[in-house]
Amino acid sequence: MPNTFAYLMLMIWPLVCLGLFRAMPPERAVIWSILGGYLILPPLAEFNLPLVPSMNKFSIASLSAFALALFYLQHRVPLWPRYWPARILMLGFVLGAIPTVLTNTEPVIYRIMTENGPIDFETLRIPGLRLRDMGSFMSNQLIVLAPFLLGRFYLASETGMRELLVALMIAGLIYSVPALLEVRISPQLNTWIYGFFQHSFEQMMRDGGFRAIVFLPHGLWVALFFVSTIVAAATLTRNAPAETRHKFLLATAYLCIVLYANKSMASMIYALALLPVIFLASTRQMILLACSFGVLAVFYPVLRQAGMIPLDAILAQAEAINPDRAHSLQFRLDNENELLERAREKWLFGWGGWGRNLVHDAETGEILTIPDGRWIITFGAFGWFGYISEMGLLAMPLILLFWYSRKAAGRTLSPFAAALALILGITMVDMLLNDTLVPFVWLIAGAALGYAERLRYDDSPELSSQQQKRTRAMMPPVLGSPPAKEGKRTVL
Fold it and tell me: Rounded to 5 degrees, what are φ and ψ at 15?
């Protein structure tokens, strides 16, 4: 159970975000409010308030950043994308809760069965959804979209996208210290600081040692985060001036060592696949690869049910590399098969929340299935409608970047946009295995969508001159530095 300090950290994070917005340009403040909350705040701890979604590390960081952008900086963050398919997907993402609730008002009841029919004894009753659940679901979806909207508004420029990559690299270098400490002494930091361990300790044991979990939901989240930092550092290496390139190269190599120490096979495969692409491929080729990842993730359920995903071959290859990992993968696939059968009963709008989409034992009521991948969680809870809305909204920036990059003949495409696209695409692939969709991923998706819109409409999403003046007036002067010139902003 989380201790008092864990809840105190959640309560003071809005004040931390306020300090960031007072001390930093808007781009950096938005990035560090969301990324810092993800990396530092306690997992699982939350405030359960009536009629609203739970306030946890994800929602508090997202809401704090969005509220400060609106009320402190007084920026009108646009809610609507400029591309109409993205608008439709956003509407489906938010309003999809309505048909889900309306088609799940009946309770789910489990009874003991005999040859003569069911005994009049209920082992489990999961209540039906009510109209107030509709408001809670929709509020949660709006909170989830807050980083997406902030990324589209603040980070769609060359400066904003570079800030994202620099922040990822710096965060990776800093986070490597507690991560390597936990690899050496075992995962203990969350227990020492926040008073509880957030997952199964056995799953943090690998190959006679440990992998880090720090303050994230699982060690796999830590490994995927380091994949993102490696992509960021490698991109900055390729695009750095010759005199500073060696520093970024050293950071890339060091982060690769940290990832290897965390003992996650899938993440190591991601990094090995992406590093040659970043150093050797063109910007358009990187965007094409990222788009391929996104399309694969969107159509994965269809491809799997059609038998077009070579699961047996993948399992055989995993068996040859590591039998334990092959057993883990087989367990995931078996669970997905059972959850898919459950989801087919309400394939259009899903089962909703409260575990209605899970498979339970009829005699004991015990949960028999563990949903690991984000895709099967969304598909079971919100059906095809919710799945296409969520995965389509994430894939839309990748598709638009690819489409408009083909039309931008003779125009230089940002390598930073290609790097963000790769991070987003590989995360969508990982979401087929794990529930790794976090606010920072939505922030990246928003930045990528904003840049794609910039390509489409041939304009810049930079803040207006009036907004820039208001923002600079609120920022305190930096000691020892000359006053900032109009239209200039320091870039790390």
Answer: -70, -35
Which of 104, 72, 76, 78 has its CA nearest to residue 90? 78
C-alpha 288/C-alpha 44 separation (Å) is 37
Rg (CA), the chain: 23
> What's the rounded Cα separation, in Å, for the pair 272 and 426?
12
Tell me the DSSP string of 228-294. Answer: HHHHHHHHHHHTS-TTTHHHHHHHHHHHHHHHHHTT-HHHHHHHHHHHHHHHHS-HHHHHHHHHHHH
| 374 touches 436 (CB < 8 A) | yes
Please state, in angstroms and rounded to a whole number, the distance separating the CA atoms of residues 278 and 286: 7
CA dihedral for 253, 258, 262, 266, sign (positive or negative): negative
Q: Collapse the DSSP code of 34 into the 3-class scheme (helix H, G, I; strand E, B; otherwise coil) and give the result.
A: helix
CB atoms within 10 A of CB 454: 20
DSSP 99: H
- Asked if residues 198 and 44 have their Cβ atoms less than 8 Å apart, the reply is yes
Instruction: Concatenate the DSSP letters of all residues of 320-361 into one string.
Output: HH-HHHHHHHHHHHHHHHHHHHHHHTTTTT---STTTTS-B-
Element (H, E) at 193: helix 189-194
Which amino acid does the sequence have at 109?
I
At 464 the pLDDT is 44
The span from the CA of 79 to the CA of 352, in Å, is 26
pLDDT at 118 over 70: no
Distance of alpha carbon 132 from alpha carbon 129, whole angstroms: 8
What tens digit of pLDDT does each residue of 323-344 get?
Answer: 777 888 888 888 888 999 999 9
Angle between helix axes 265-280 and 415-430 (nearest 10 degrees) is 160
- The reported pLDDT for the residue numbered 458 is 65
pLDDT at 11 over 80: yes
Tell me the helices (H) and strands (E) count for the chain, helix number first. Answer: 18, 4
Q: What is the greatest pairwise CA distance in the chain?
A: 87
Residues 6+ apart with CB under 8 A from 420: 161, 164, 165, 444, 447, 448, 451
350 neighbors 371 (Cβ within 8 angstroms): no
- For 203, the 3-state DSSP assignment is helix
Please list, residue by residue across 95-107, b when 16 or more beta carbons sit within 10 angstroms of its beta carbon and e when fewer do.
Answer: bbbebbbebbeee
pTM of the model: 0.90
State both tokens at 33.
């409010």
What are the extents of the domains in the chain?
1-78+467-477, 82-113+152-466
Return d(Cα 480, Cα 482) in angstroms, integer: 7
- Angle ∠(165,372,149) on CA atoms, nearest 5: 40
CB 150 within 8 A of CB 77: yes
**Residues 183, 260 contacting (CB under 8 angstroms):** no
